[in-house]
Specification:
The complex is a heterodimer of chains A (247) and B (305). With 247 residues, chain A is mainly α. Chain A contains nine helices and one strand. Among the domains of chain A are: 73 residues, no CATH class; 84 residues, no CATH class. Chain B has two domains: 119 residues, no CATH class; 127 residues, no CATH class. The chains are: A mainly alpha (247), B mainly beta (305). At the A-B interface, strand 1, helix 8 and helix 9 of A face strand 1, strand 3, helix 2, strand 6 and strand 7 of B.
Chain lengths: 247, 305
C-alpha cells in the first residue's frame, strides 16, 4: 500500500490546536445516564405495547351510531344546549400545573395508531382529575362573580284537574248565584249587617280566587296552586253555608 | 265448602290491574328545564338586600363571610321539553346593585296578546348573606324560608308560606293568604296577617300581631315578652304559659275565653257579647294583651316548672 503524505498536515494540526475548547455543562453526563437507565427500564413496556394487537370496530358500527344519534331528537337538543353553554377559562397556572404533570411530547410522525403508554396513564389521570377538580372549584366557589348554566331533569307528577272538575265548579258557581239572587229579593235580609259582612267576605274571596286564577294562567297549575285554590273554595263554601243559614 | 278458584283469580287479577293501572294513570313525567344563575356580591356596611319574587321558593340564611351569594334557579316543566324550553324564556330576572342596595327580582314577561305559557314555571332562590344584613323580601305565590338573621327583616307576601327561624331585631311581616310558622323570633316584631294562620314558638321581645280571619297559636320564652294581639274573626291559642312571668289581659267579642284553672283568671262579662279575663301575678311588668272578635281565646295549661 502506498501512503501519500498529506501536504497540509501542519496547517491542519495548527488549525486543530486553535479550535476553541468546550466543556459540557455540569450534570449533563448524569442526566444522560439517568435517561438511558429510564429507557432501559421502559424498554420491556414499550416492547409489550408495540406487541399489543390493534382493534378496529367494523365500519358499520360507526354508521349505526351516527344514524342513532341523528334519530334521537332529545340528544340533539341536549347537544345544542351544550353548544350554547358559556365557555369558562380556568386560570393559567392550572394549565401549567397540568403540563408539569404530563410526560414530554412524543414524535407523532409514526403511522401507528396513537396508543397511550401504560406508564403515562397515571400521569394523565392525575392531570384530568386536577382539571376536573379545578373546574368544579371554579364553578361552585362563591365570590367569583356571575355564572349561568342550564340543566335538564324529569319529575313525576299527578295530573291535576279534569273536565269533570270544571263542570262541578260551574255547578258550584250556579249555587252562589242562586243564593245571592235569593238574598237580593229577600224582604228582610237585604240590609242585615251579618249578610252584608258575608257578602263583603265573599267579594274578598272572589278577588283572591281571581288573583290565583291569573297566577295559574301565568305560571301553570301545580299542586301548591291547587291547594291554595282549594282553601279559598272551602272558605267560600263556608260563607255560602252561613248565607243559606240566614235565609 | 266449595272454593271457586276461578273467581278468586279473577278478583285478584282485577285488583292487580286496578292497582297498576291506577298507578300508571296517576303519574305523568314532566321534562324540567332549569336555568341557574349565580352571583356573589361583596357586602359592605349599610348594604341591604331586596328580593322581589314571583312564584318563588326563597331560602334565605346567613354565613360569616362578607359576601352576599345569590343562587337563582328558574325552571319550566312540561311533558314536551321543547315547550318547557320555550316557556322558560318568559321567566326573566334581574340582579342589580343600586348604591348600597342589592336588588334581586324575577318576573314573567307577558307579551301583549301572546300565548300564555303552557309549562309550570317556578323560581327558586338560595340567598346567603351576613347575619347583620337587612333584608326586604316580597313574594307572591310560593314559599319563603328565612333564618338566622340579626338585623332587620321586612317581609311582604301573598299566597306564600313563611317559615321563620332564629330571627332577631326589627322584624315586620305582612302576609295575605299565607301561613306563618316561626320559631325563636325575638326583638321588635310586627305581624299583619289576613286569611293566614300563624304558629309561633319561643318568641321574645315586643310582639304586635294584627290578624283578620285565621288562627294564631303560640308559646313564648319565660321572660321578656310584651305581646299584643288585635284580631278579627281569629281564634287564638297561647300554649304552656310560664306562670309568674306575664300578666294577661284577654278580651273577646262574640267568642269565648278558656283559661287554665291553675292560673285562676278573673273572668268578667262586660256585655252580652263581650267577655274579659285578667291575670296578674304582681311580679312582672311583661304583659300579654289579646283582643279578638268572632273568635275564641284559649290559654293552655301552664308550663310545669
Amino acid at each position: 500500500m502506498i501512503v501519500v503524505p498529506e501536504k497540509n498536515r501542519n496547517t491542519l494540526l495548527r488549525a486543530l490546536r486553535e479550535l476553541p475548547e468546550y466543556e459540557p455543562p455540569d450534570g449533563l453526563w448524569d442526566e444522560l445516564g439517568q435517561r438511558l437507565a429510564r429507557e432501559r427500564a421502559e424498554a420491556p413496556l414499550r416492547r409489550a405495547i408495540r406487541e399489543l394487537p390493534d382493534h378496529y370496530p367494523p365500519a358499520a358500527l360507526w354508521e349505526n351510531l351516527h344514524v342513532q344519534l341523528d334519530r334521537d331528537q332529545s340528544e340533539r337538543t341536549l347537544r345544542q344546549a351544550i353548544a350554547e353553554l358559556p365557555s369558562h377559562h380556568p386560570p393559567a397556572e392550572l394549565w401549567e400545573d397540568i403540563a408539569a404533570g404530563l410526560p414530554p411530547a412524543e414524535d407523532t410522525s409514526s403511522p401507528r395508531p396513537r396508543v397511550i403508554a401504560l406508564w403515562q396513564r397515571p400521569a394523565l389521570a392525575a392531570g384530568i382529575t386536577a382539571l376536573l377538580c379545578a373546574l368544579a372549584w371554579w364553578t361552585f366557589t362563591p365570590g367569583l362573580g356571575k355564572r349561568a348554566s342550564i340543566s335538564y331533569s324529569t319529575i313525576e307528577v299527578v295530573p291535576l284537574g279534569t273536565d269533570q272538575d270544571d263542570q262541578e265548579m260551574r255547578r258550584d258557581e250556579e249555587a252562589f248565584e242562586l243564593v245571592l239572587g235569593e238574598l237580593a229579593v229577600h224582604p228582610l235580609l237585604g240590609e242585615d249587617p251579618e249578610i252584608q259582612m258575608l257578602k263583603e267576605e265573599l267579594v274578598e274571596l272572589d278577588a283572591a280566587r281571581e288573583q290565583l286564577q291569573t297566577a295559574i294562567s301565568h305560571y301553570g297549575r301545580d299542586a301548591e296552586m291547587e291547594q291554595r285554590m282549594t282553601r279559598i273554595e272551602h272558605e267560600r263554601g263556608a260563607v255560602l253555608l252561613a248565607m243559606i243559614a240566614k235565609i | 265448602m266449595v272454593v271457586n278458584y276461578q273467581s278468586i283469580f279473577q278478583h285478584c287479577a282485577a285488583a292487580f290491574l286496578l292497582f297498576w293501572g291506577g298507578g300508571l294513570i296517576a303519574q305523568e313525567t314532566l321534562q324540567v328545564v332549569t336555568q341557574n344563575y349565580q352571583e356573589s356580591i361583596p357586602f359592605g356596611l349599610g348594604t341591604e338586600v331586596s328580593i322581589e319574587g314571583e312564584k318563588a321558593d326563597v331560602y334565605l340564611s346567613s354565613w360569616d363571610r362578607n359576601q352576599v351569594a345569590v343562587y337563582l334557579d328558574l325552571s319550566s316543566a312540561h311533558q314536551d321539553r321543547r315547550v318547557a324550553e320555550q316557556d322558560l324564556e318568559r321567566m326573566q330576572h334581574t340582579m342589580i346593585q343600586e348604591g348600597s342596595k342589592i336588588i334581586v327580582r324575577n318576573y314573567i314577561s307577558k307579551p301583549e296578546g301572546g300565548e300564555r305559557p303552557e309549562s309550570m314555571l317556578k323560581a327558586k332562590y338560595t340567598i346567603i348573606l351576613p347575619a347583620n344584613c337587612p333584608v326586604n323580601l316580597s313574594n307572591f305565590f310560593g314559599s319563603a324560608d328565612v333564618r338566622d338573621l340579626q338585623n332587620a327583616v321586612v317581609i311582604n307576601s301573598e299566597f306564600c308560606q313563611l317559615d321563620l327561624l332564629n330571627l332577631r331585631g326589627q322584624i315586620s311581616i305582612s302576609t295575605r293568604f299565607g301561613d306563618i310558622n316561626g320559631r325563636q323570633i325575638a326583638g321588635n316584631v310586627q305581624i299583619f296577617s289576613n286569611r293566614s294562620n300563624i304558629n309561633l314558638s319561643e318568641i321574645q321581645g315586643v310582639v304586635n300581631i294584627k290578624s283578620r280571619y285565621g288562627r294564631i297559636e303560640l308559646d313564648a320564652q319565660p321572660e321578656n315578652l310584651d305581646l299584643a294581639i288585635d284580631a278579627v274573626r281569629t281564634d287564638i291559642v297561647f300554649n304552656e304559659p310560664p306562670v309568674g312571668y306575664y300578666s294577661f289581659l284577654l278580651r273577646t267579642q262574640n267568642g269565648e275565653i278558656i283559661t287554665p284553672k291553675e292560673m285562676n283568671f278573673q273572668v268578667r262579662q262586660l256585655s252580652a257579647d263581650t267577655q274579659e279575663a285578667l291575670y296578674n301575678p304582681g311580679t312582672t311588668e311583661s304583659e300579654v294583651k289579646i283582643h279578638t272578635t268572632f273568635g275564641n281565646i284559649v290559654i293552655g295549661p301552664p308550663l310545669s316548672n
